[in-house]
Design goal:
- This protein has 161 residues and is of the alpha+beta class.
- The protein has helices spanning 4-14, 23-41, 61-68, 101-114, 119-127, 130-134, 143-159, and strands at residues 51-52, 57-58, 72-78, 84-90, 139-140.
- The radius of gyration is 16 Å and the shape is globular.
- It starts with a helix and ends with a helix.
């Protein structure tokens, strides 16, 4: 299993648009990586206990991890509407020893799939995932169980085409 700290460091280091790395975006990117891992490998990549918050997957673990690790800097700023947001930055020499090749492939997939999306497009991507479409607000998201359900639903959806 990849440590949450290492997954965050990898995202912050490799995501091409550093000014977009708000806590909310990084949190949802880790969610997408855990979801992809659950689908492709039958297990989450990190140990995050995901919760379907008001509108989507959210936990405080990402921000807390960044605040506790000296390799990260949490920069308070504002979004385009003037609301406060926290930008996550990682030291240029930060390492991520628990990220193996399989995990790099997953994280790169998430980065590549989201880097060209503005915030609204990115959120639509996150909200279109099966755990959010099938889940209930304010409940824990068991991504592995939901990936198993999803694999059963895919053939049904494909047969309707």
């Amino acid at each position: 299993m990849t440590s949450l700290r290492d997954a965050i460091a990898y995202i912050c280091k490799h995501y091409p648009h550093k000014d977009e790395l708000s806590n909310a975006r990084v949190t949802k990117m880790v969610y997408l990586a855990d979801w992809r891992s659950a689908i492709t490998r039958g297990k989450q990549m990190t140990e995050v206990p995901w919760v379907f918050h008001h509108y989507g997957p959210f936990v405080y673990d990402i921000l807390d991890t960044a605040k506790e690790d000296p390799a990260f800097e949490v920069v308070p700023t504002h979004n385009m509407y003037g609301a406060p947001k926290d930008l996550l930055k990682v030291a240029h020499d930060a390492t991520y020893p628990s990220v193996g090749e399989d995990e790099k492939d997953i994280l790169n997939f998430v980065i590549d799939s989201s880097a060209d999306k503005n915030w609204d497009e990115f959120i639509r991507l996150v909200y279109s995932t099966y755990p959010i479409l099938a889940g209930e607000r304010h409940t824990k998201l068991d991504l592995v169980e939901l990936a198993n359900e999803y694999r059963e639903v895919i053939p049904l959806l494909e047969s309707e085409r």
